[in-house]
Amino acid sequence: LTDKFPNPGAADAIQGNGAMDGVTFHPTPVDACHVPATIGGFRTMFTAFHHFRPQAARAVLEDAVASGAPIAIFESTKRSLPCIIFMLLAPFIVLLVMPWVRPFRFTNLLFTYLIPLVPLMILWDGIVSDLRTSRTRWYHRATGNLANAHVCPSCSRGTSPISDRRHRLVVMHPPAPLSHPLPCASPLRSPARRS
After folding, report:
1. d(CA 78, CA 3)
2. 56-113 tens-digit pLDDT
3. Which pairs with CB-CB distance under 8 Å and at least 24 residues apart come from 51-58?
4. According to the model, what pLDDT value does residue 148 have?
5. Is 49 strand, coil or helix?
6. Where are the alpha helices (DSSP H) in 81-153?
7. Would you say 90 and 124 are in contact if contact means Cβ atoms under 8 Å apart?
8. Using CA atoms, how far apart are residues 15 and 75, in angstroms rounded to an integer?
9. Which residue has the higher pLDDT, 181 or 17?
């Protein structure tokens, strides 16, 4: 695992309790826009891509394409009215589950029930994340002039807990065959190129 701001103490604690056997943590900062050539493999980004500004998001994709590295972007958020409405329930869920959050701290109760900062922060973060999540067509536009960018259309399908519409799972990979084939259900195709 890599991070722009690695936390060695947390990594050591996780590895020490055996929760993530077989997972290694890169000890130095890694910028997803400029991944060092010494770090190879299949790149993944889980529920983080919407935090990048459009220029930085494009730089992440450009760097993966330039390195010939496949990248999978998983987003559980979605820019849609049902998702935003669902996020309106988040503060109530926080109110219900906070007494069982571990480790227990009285400050959790203070900032949930007496001064409701936690429910309001969760609500704000969820709605803003939904609104910032890119639609699939953005990936096609963003990679439209990259010579070796192939967006896998069948890997972009998924089911959402609140609808049967797509998650934002986008898999890009170089045109050459991969050593570990992707679970594509249809032939790979490139997005339409603009001249």
Report:
1. 24
2. 988 998 898 888 888 888 888 888 899 899 999 999 999 999 999 998 999 999 999 9
3. 51/132, 54/142, 57/134, 57/142, 58/142
4. 64
5. helix
6. 81-87, 90-97, 106-109, 117-132, 136-142
7. no
8. 26
9. 17
Give, in order, the Cα–Cα distances in Å from 170 to each of 27, 39, 140.
27, 21, 10
Q: Which amino acid does the sequence have at 10?
A: A
User: How far is the C-alpha of 25 from the C-alpha of 77, rounded, in Å?
Assistant: 26
Q: Where are the alpha helices (DSSP H) in 133-187?
A: 136-142
| Residue length of the chain | 195
**Confidence label for 187 from pLDDT (cuts 50, 70 and 90):** very low
Beta-carbon contacts of 81 under 8 Å, excluding residues fewer than 6 positions away, are: none
Which of the two residues, 46 and 134, has the higher pLDDT score? 46
